[in-house]
Amino acid sequence: MSLPDREKRCGLKDEVLAGEYVLGALTADARAELAKRMKTDRQFAAMVRRWQDNLTDTDRHERRSFSSYVDASKKHERHQTHDRLHQRRYRRFSIVAALWNSVRFWRLATSAALLWAAVLLFTFPSV
């Protein structure tokens, strides 16, 4: 593996400085010094512009994503309100549906019916 030459290392450092400049992560003195450098160094100014463009695109994309998230959450709130209304309105039917779909209920009902039939069969004399 070969080490990068001095120009590449300096380019990487400039790239980092350009990013920090755009993000506002530098002190006021360093920022003023880089602003002066941008007026004389075209390559550095191009790096700063590229950083600004990339972050602007990212910011736009994030704003769109956030607005779609807000829209989706509003729709979700409406659905929750509708669900609460639905639950209140049909709560009594949910009990009936739970019984209708319950195996235990049907076993109990069958046992009760058989017991009642046996009681009726043995209590009334045959004529």
Structure report:
- This protein is mostly helical.
- The protein is built from 5 helices and no strands.
- The protein has helices at 6-23, 28-40, 42-89, 91-100, 103-123.
- Helix 1 crosses helix 3 and helix 2 (28-40) crosses helix 3 (42-89).
- The model is unreliable at 1-9 (pLDDT under 50).
Rg from alpha-carbon coordinates = 38 Å
Strand content: under 5%
Cα separation of the termini: 110 Å
Q: Characterize the overall form.
A: rod-shaped
Overall helicity: over 70%
Biggest beta sheet attributes: none
Put simply, the count of helices is: 5
- Quickly give the structural class: mainly alpha
Give the topology, please:
Layout: H1 6-23, H2 28-40, H3 42-89, H4 91-100, H5 103-123
Helix pairs in contact: 1-3, 2-3
Summarize the structure.
By secondary structure, the protein is mainly α. It has helices at residues 6-23, 28-40, 42-89, 91-100, 103-123.
